[in-house]
């Protein structure tokens, strides 16, 4: 059976940048094992499988796999899938067009606002279905520094401290003194669990205030271990969704709507830009949204 698929680059407005994504359309009939094997075959950070929605008022049910595990939620698969479904339905519009795409993910229903603009890469923004909350306990600063090949005095800036948050997936958030230190990060597997916890998803999002682009608020790298080997992600929307917790706790933004741009992937040669909008009420996060652009790189058929 031939199943159409697309390759996209997400959180970028140009091909061969951002975070690559595979989306398998018409995944009906594939088993869990087959989906995991196909994700391993693509060998991208995530592969999405599109299925008929449980609620006919929604656009699709989606399942998201890394090469080694299924995820309940992820940012760049959500943005990329919303852009792909909208473009497949409407094509290239003669005039600017907005669309609403409703995706059933394991974390819950995700509402995506898609903006299609003539001559520009399509963008999507989604309401994060869960507010950030503290996740696993992290190790001492010395252990965190050792796990990242840094010195302990490089693990901080201003009043920011390492802390784990989750908004669908847990991440360890590590403030780093500057971009020079951030670029020196090399994961050391033997210290990883001591620093970031003995859990399946102990991926680490290191960040600093220093940025390459003037409109960015933070520069970041997301590093992790897969099958015991160090890996890096070019753009991690689910991490930025949880990162809102650190921003709210340490920066204490005033009530109102605050917008941030997080740049990521530069060390990998895959520049990415993730937008984060946080709505603060009574000093706490009331709602937050993740957004970015995506471009379709290729279309093909999967013969499985």
From TrEMBL:
Keywords associated with the record = Isomerase
Membrane-crossing ranges are none
For this protein, the record's InterPro entries field holds: Phenazine_PhzF-like
Q: Which GO terms describe its molecular function?
A: isomerase activity
| Classification via Pfam families | PhzC-PhzF (PF02567)
Checking PANTHER family in the record gives: ANTISENSE-ENHANCING SEQUENCE 1 (PTHR13774:SF32), PHENAZINE BIOSYNTHESIS PROTEIN (PTHR13774)
Q: Which family does it belong to?
A: Belongs to the PhzF family.
Q: What is this protein called?
A: Isomerase
């Amino acid at each position: 059976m031939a199943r159409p698929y697309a390759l996209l680059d997400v959180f970028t407005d140009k091909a061969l940048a951002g975070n690559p994504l595979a989306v398998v359309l018409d995944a009906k009939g594939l088993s869990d094992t087959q989906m995991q094997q196909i994700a391993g075959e693509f060998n991208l950070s995530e592969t999405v499988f599109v299925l008929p929605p449980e609620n006919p008022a929604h656009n699709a049910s989606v399942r998201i796999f890394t090469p080694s595990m299924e995820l309940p939620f992820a940012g760049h698969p959500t943005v990329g899938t919303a852009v792909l479904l909208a473009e497949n339905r409407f094509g290239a519009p003669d005039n600017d067009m907005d669309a609403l795409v409703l995706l059933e993910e394991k974390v819950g229903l995700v509402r995506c606002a898609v903006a299609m603009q003539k001559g520009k890469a399509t963008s999507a923004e989604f309401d994060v279905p869960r507010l950030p909350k503290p996740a696993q306990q992290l190790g001492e600063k010395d252990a965190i520094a050792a796990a990242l090949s840094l010195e302990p005095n490089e693990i901080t800036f201003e009043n920011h401290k390492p802390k784990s948050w989750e908004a669908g997936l847990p991440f360890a958030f590590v403030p780093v003194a500057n971009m020079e230190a951030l670029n020196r990060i090399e994961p050391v597997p033997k210290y990883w669990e001591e620093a970031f916890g003995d859990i399946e998803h102990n991926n680490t999002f290191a960040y600093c205030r220093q940025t390459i682009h003037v409109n960015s608020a933070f520069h970041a790298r997301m590093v992790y271990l897969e099958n015991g080997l160090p890996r890096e992600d070019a753009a991690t929307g689910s991490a930025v969704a949880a990162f809102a917790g650190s921003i709210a706790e340490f920066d204490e933004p005033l009530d109102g709507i605050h917008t941030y741009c997080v740049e990521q992937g530069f060390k990998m040669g895959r520049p990415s830009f993730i937008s984060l909008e946080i709505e603060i009420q009574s000093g706490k996060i009331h709602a937050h949204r993740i957004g970015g652009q995506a471009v379709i790189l290729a279309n093909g058929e999967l013969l499985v």
